[in-house]
Amino acid sequence: MKLNSNELEGGEDLQKKLNDGLSKYKISNVGDLPERIHRCEQRIKDYQEEGRSEEAENENNRLAELKTLQKFANDLNKSKEEETDESKLRKLEEKLAKGLAQLKVPNISALIEKIQRSKERISEFEEEDRIDEVEIEKVYLKNFEDLNQLADEITNLKSNSSKKPVDDMPKPSPVTPIVENIPTPTTEQSVEKQRFNSHDMYPCAEKTVVEFLEYFQEKHLEGAHVKLDRKFINERFKQLQKQIERQELFFKKIQENLQDLDRYLSSENIPSILRCSSELLSRIRPLDVPEIERLVKKAKDAAKFIAGKEIILLIGETGTGKSTTIQFLSGAKMKKTKVEVEPGRFSEHITIDGPIKNHDLINVTNSALSKSETRYIAPVSIPLRDICGSHESGEIILCDAPGFGDTAGAEVDIANGVGVIEALKGCKTVKILALSSYKSLGDRGQGIQKLAHLLINMIQDIQERLGAICYAFTKYPSSMDINALLTDIKTSKVDKDPLLQSDTTFIAVLKDMINKTRVDAEIIDPLSGDPKSLIEKLQKLRGIKHPDEVFRFSISTETQSCISNQVQQDNSNIKCALKHRDIDLVLHYLDKLKNLKDLIDLSTIRDSYEDAIRSVKETLTNFCSERTKTFHRSLTSQDGLNIEDIQEYKYSIEFIQKCQKLQKHF
């Protein structure tokens, strides 16, 4: 490669030539160039003194090319410094648009859904041991996540710009009825949640990351041009590095996260800092145990309200419209709005029109992003006179529950198993309103299959309890023949698939759906429909009696994996803390393991907790034995005790006394 420093280079050409040159001379970091140049100059001087003119000339040629590379690097740095926010923004937006086109993603709004679906496919392929497909899908996931990160950078650049960003996104139509903003994930509530999690935590890597999230969430809420406390940030980051090293968290992904976080902190890219900190926290702490405890407590509070009562439980995946259906069935007037899901991008959303009249609906929220908003079971009591007329008395209780087995996360999945199912077991009877959404139907009726298996996994001997289930259909075209659709799924898909045919329980549920939709399928229309007919159907159902003997919940494979990762991490943290004789940290992680064990009756957690206890006992026993022998040798030696021996003995006594706080686990 012949380098010519006199050429007028464009930024990309300059970067390419710099990279080629660094590769040629096997220089991995441009920051190493000055040292290489210095070495080269020293060798030239040595060769000249030794009269080795040929070697000196060769080294001179090498030096010239290295200096040219250094000039390229300097020019690039200078151009980056001089580059305006506007030109940066333009380049980033061009790069984003190109990436979206290559991956056939229609807009930024669809990225989150693409990422989630890609993760689901990876999990499915892993379960089926399809290793090649897993690797291919991981490449796609990385591309989607890179684009999402690029979108974050663009958002941050726009928010920090003193000029109003050029908005080339399509504007909402002038006839749009109402435009509402969706709260971003960074809300006052989410900041408060992080405080809840970090409260009284012993200093460790987990707590420091949570404190980072607290700080930057608050700063993000303050908006553009916020002033950051660099001293606090630098001190906390150094502390985090030491804690990660002390806890021996040397996993590749954690180290990569730490490097990314350092870069984002330097550039003060708050959206990327929040995203990166969340990823780092999920790797340091795969499972948020305090959040599970919070959700279970909420479920127990709800359990007191529905204990001994007849309830109707809504079942369906996230995005099927469970919360919207409850609002509709309560008699609330509904409206269609345009919701801004990101700057310049709008989505249709159905919500309550006017003030909420039924106080119970305050805990029932929905999202325009097909995202689970329900985090714990929320009962809504509906007086029948409000729906059926003044001649009716009594009430029905509808329960909005988190999406079972969906994207709500391991914490919600566990809280379902621990809290929601236990709450249902205390009821007098339970009826089921099973919802299927047209959006999740799929080209082979996968949505119907998922709904059927949700019911099967939840209700023991479901074939005997089909009389307690009513099916309703959301977001379907009003003209669609639901019965014909279900029949087609059975004849063209199920009857031709030997694996599905062997699933007799699924066949029974599907036949029940077909039978119950022959005459009058319930297609829910929240805007102009009448809830009365569906309410009357629900009243006629035979509720499941003795629910404590019927309802069950088995957590998903992904959640089991998450639990396994968490208990392994806690065990490893306990061993590291013992190595450094940090008893308070040992106690912190033992408490976490015990809390998880008390919440979830799984052998994985019990065994891990018992292993941790054994490890602590053995370590402390060995410590006492070694210290006793050492002190005895010193005591009986010819020289007797010296000051160091006495200090060591004193430290040992203090350490053993401190270990007494672990006694509650023994």
UniProtKB/TrEMBL annotation:
Q: Where is this region: Disordered?
A: 159-189
Entry keywords, A to Z: Coiled coil
Q: Which InterPro entries match?
A: P-loop_NTPase (IPR027417)
Annotated coiled-coil segments of the chain:
37-128
Q: What is this protein called?
A: Uncharacterized protein
